[in-house]
UniProtKB/TrEMBL annotation:
Keywords: Disulfide bond, FAD, Flavoprotein, Oxidoreductase, Redox-active center
GO molecular function: glutathione-disulfide reductase (NADPH) activity
Gene name in the database record: gorA
Name of the protein: Glutathione-disulfide reductase
SUPFAM superfamilies per the UniProt record, alphabetical: FAD/NAD(P)-binding domain (SSF51905), FAD/NAD-linked reductases, dimerisation (C-terminal) domain (SSF55424)
Residue ranges constituting the FAD/NAD(P)-binding domain according to the UniProt record: 9-325
Family indicated by similarity: Belongs to the class-I pyridine nucleotide-disulfide oxidoreductase family.
Length: 460
């Protein structure tokens, strides 16, 4: 891209999260003059208060089961295992600092100018930057809004006593009794984490089954497995009020039940982080979900202002923001014709215990879309648990369009489901048929081989 001297930069990115950093680096690699403004932490939610620390804590929580499982294989622990929260928390913080440094070096190495400042858009080509040193204005041919999302908490008496996922990683002391409100990704992941780390854990959900939108059988199976591991699930319930009493939190539920806990996490969804960005001044309107409408070139109603990731419609997932960033750079800096992302076959994992991995359509969605489907499913105790004594079970499921034989959905609940479903997602994305799955030789002995050995439909 040729530098346009009329502006200070060719691209100004607001927000150094997954999407913003990827777009900045890729655009800079084309020779464009790129700047990024960030006033919080490099790497955004994913690196600092999302995917990365969550996965580290999930690993920590899995050790609980591993210690129990080891005995049947002959291992004897010298004394009962104990867990030290500050060690986990502080090691996590060191790792994140290391990643923040990597992000900074990646941006600098790519030739991106980094502003440690709060950015506000003041006209279609100008951004003002504010920090302790004062305020400056810079101009750019294009401005990319990449400020992601922010936790949202409903208001109820005592809602200010709840934590969000922004704070829960850094608690001063370990909550021996932990309560999470919500039934989505963050709720089930943190219920599993604190349960695994040893807290008495309660999950409060207003609906009657967790993880709305996922395959029904996956949801039911996950609930059973989480309950087996000791998470106390309270359905058709909400929090009526929270009061602090002698260091503890008294949580009154809408069912009349009262629970005393040490920490309450509100995992009640996230909203696009648009406050203070200045877009209202430019006449850019948000849709009914508070997201920024964009066209297939990621342009907002003001064409020089672009947006991606959690600010726009679509799944709020890091890999989606990364894919959008690369596509945006292809369109605006490599001048390629937009090729819309295939949002239908985005695989996802939920790191509850056991994990969920899923790609494509749920059984229910496939039934609505196709006149006839075949459902292949199996659930079993993994070989490891013949000796461990654990009662944990695994679920695997393939959904097939009967007319074309194409596998339109694959679902799994079980150990390392995310690792496994990533490979299956290539097959589903490629539109392979059940016959292709059947002709694939299994790997023995694994749980994964079930995905290529299920032969008889469980139902149509
Ligand atoms: P989700 O949208 O997944 O879940 C929000 C939950 O809060 C839902 O169960 C919802 O209930 C409930 N809720 C909403 N409003 C209220 C209310 N007023 N009172 C009580 N409950 C309420 O959001 P999360 O916060 O869990 O996560 C945000 C996003 O982050 C996810 O959607 C996901 O895209 C992403 N994420 C991805 C992860 C991964 O890839 N593994 C991990 C963590 C987050 P209802 O279902 O009835 O609407």
């Amino acid at each position: 891209m040729s530098a346009d001297a009329a502006y200070d930069f060719d691209l100004f990115v607001i927000g150094a999260g997954s999407g913003g950093v990827r777009a900045a680096r890729m655009a800079a690699a084309t020779g464009a003059r790129v700047a990024v403004a960030e006033d919080r932490y490099l790497g955004g939610t994913c690196v600092n208060v999302g995917c990365v620390p969550k996965k580290l804590y999930s690993y920590a929580a899995h050790f609980h089961d591993s210690f129990d499982d080891a005995a049947g294989f002959g291992w004897q622990l010298a004394s009962p295992a104990t867990f030290d929260w500050p060690t986990l928390r502080d090691n996590k913080t060191s790792e994140i600092k290391r990643l923040n440094g990597i992000y900074q070096r990646m941006l600098e190495g790519a030739g991106v100018t980094l502003f440690n400042a709060r950015a506000r858009v003041v006209d279609p080509h100008t951004v003002t930057l504010t920090n302790a040193d004062g305020e400056v204005s810079v101009s750019a041919e294009k401005i990319l809004l990449a400020t992601g999302g922010w936790p949202w908490v409903p208001e109820f008496p005592g809602s200010d006593l709840t934590l969000t996922s922004n704070q829960v990683f850094d608690l001063d002391s370990f909550p021996e009794r932990f309560l999470v409100l919500g039934g989505g990704y963050i709720a089930v992941e943190f219920a599993s984490i604190f349960n695994g780390l040893g807290s008495e854990t309660h999950l409060i959900y207003r609906g009657d089954l967790l993880l709305k939108g996922f395959d029904q059988e996956v949801r039911e199976f996950t609930c059973d497995e989480m309950a087996k591991k000791g998470v106390n699930l309270h359905f058709s319930a909400n929090i009526a009020r929270i009061e602090r009493k002698e260091g503890a939190l008294q949580v009154e539920l809408t069912t009349g039940e009262t629970l005393e806990v040490d920490a309450v996490l509100a995992a009640t969804g996230r909203k696009a982080n648009t406050s203070g960005l200045g877009i209202d001044v430019l006449g850019i309107e948000l849709n009914s979900e508070g997201k920024l409408p964009v066209n297939e070139r990621y342009e907002t109603q003001v064409p020089s202002i672009l947006a991606l990731g959690d600010l726009i419609a679509g799944p709020e997932l890091t890999p989606v923001a990364l894919a959008e960033a690369m596509q945006l750079v292809d369109i605006h800096f490599h001048k390629k014709t937009p090729r819309p992302l295939d949002y239908d076959t985005i695989p996802t994992a939920v790191f509850c215990h056991p994990n969920i991995g899923t790609v494509g359509l749920s059984e229910e969605a496939a039934r609505e879309k196709f006149s006839k489907i075949r459902v292949y499913r199996t659930d079993f105790r993994a070989m490891k648990h013949t000796l461990s004594g654990s009662q944990e079970r695994m679920l695997m499921k393939l959904i097939v369009d009967d007319a074309s034989d194409v596998v339109v959905g694959a679902h799994m609940v079980g150990e390392e489901a995310g690792e496994l479903i990533q490979g299956i997602a290539i097959a589903v994305r490629a539109g392979l048929t059940k016959e292709d799955f059947d002709r694939t030789v299994g790997i023995h002995p694994t749980g994964a081989e079930e995905f290529v050995t299920m032969r008889t439909p469980a139902r149509y």
